[in-house]
Amino acid sequence: MTATRIEKIETFQIPPRWLLVRVTTADGAAGWGECIVPKRVRAVTGAVADLADNVVGRDARHIEDLWQRMYRGGFFRGGPILATASAGIEQALWDLKARAVGLPVHDFLGGAVRERIRAYAWVGGDAPADVVEHARERVEQGFTAVKMNATATADHLDRRAVVDDVLGRVGALRDAFGADLDIALDFHGRVPRTVAKILLRELEPFRLLWVEEPITPDTDDALRHVVPPGSSVPIATGERLTSRWQVKELLAAGVVDILQPDVSLTGLFELEKIARMAEPYDVAVAPHCPNGPVSLAASLQVGFCCPNVVIQEQSGGIHYHQGYAGLPAADLFDYLRDPDPLRTPDGYFRHGTAPGLGIDVDDDAVQAAVAQWRLPDPDWRHDDGRYAEW
């Protein structure tokens, strides 16, 4: 058997809500990946185990073949659980392959096209509050772009209250920072069509970086009816999509300005393919990543080699990582031997030449932190008791 034969695939459930994957080969080499969908963590770990049954014993260097096997081999395919399980394994395979020859992954994908990638940070939380104070902290950290949720729950007839509330928050940020701070607004698919139509019109004077998921991906075909004709507000979406087959419909419809695929749903190579596919449509890519350090490192490898990647989300200090839903707190650098590759002292990630994904996961720290946490559903409801979009 070859030394690059896959020997073992393990998952590590660690705080604050991360699921790391380690793939080990017969020669003892290891690579790391990261899965998401934390509210279904047992389903994801089970899916990783199921997929591992089909790839353990095979040559770790044949990444595309293994991805095809994971994607097509079960007859029933698609969905976020299988997608994130295969993405975590696939990231680890790229980490292994590139480390074996001492190169960063992006050197396998055409090489670097830039020296740095702009980063943005979150403010405000799920029910946005204190956004000006939080944004000031982000500016002091070096960021020139922030994103916040537009609102908490929103109902179909909440037009006046929700619209005034959102405009007030965005206006407060503009008053405090002028044009020096770029502001992205995430509707999170939770804003009903009746409210989204008004908001997209009323928000135009604020010159937002983008409006994200103005409606749920289930109704993306209605975007053309929600976005006002001639609107200059850039529309971003795609974080819940898992493959080129889903993205091509958005591109063909011409309803998206900025794609936001998540490397821990698509996988690393698929993210690169999606970015290349978006380029001839003049669509930018801003990879989604409110996740852990391995997911971020994998996403950056694509960003360094794709010219239409314009900005990268990162999760440092995000509300989800600070004891969210009663879980233990942890942050972006807690499981790395050296955090510098993921630092953004001036609001930018710097191009690096370290092998693999460009980071070194601290195996001992991961092992010591393993905990069987459970992240509950938020159970958001309207005032009358109906379940609300989260």
Automatic annotation (TrEMBL):
The keyword Lyase applies. SMART domains: MR_MLE (SM00922). Keywords: Lyase. Signal peptide: none annotated. GO terms for biological process: amino acid catabolic process. PANTHER family: D-GALACTONATE DEHYDRATASE, D-GALACTONATE DEHYDRATASE-RELATED. Residues 128-228 form the Mandelate racemase/muconate lactonizing enzyme C-terminal domain. InterPro entries: DgoD-like, Enolase-like_C_sf, Enolase-like_N, Enolase_C-like, Mandel_Rmase/mucon_lact_enz_CS, Mandelate_racemase_C, Mandelate_racemase_N_dom. It comes from the Bacteria. It is an enzyme of class 4 (lyase). This is Galactonate dehydratase. NCBIfam families: PRK14017.1. It comes from Jiangella asiatica. One of its GO terms (molecular function) is galactonate dehydratase activity. Its EC number is 4.2.1.6. PROSITE patterns: MR_MLE_2.
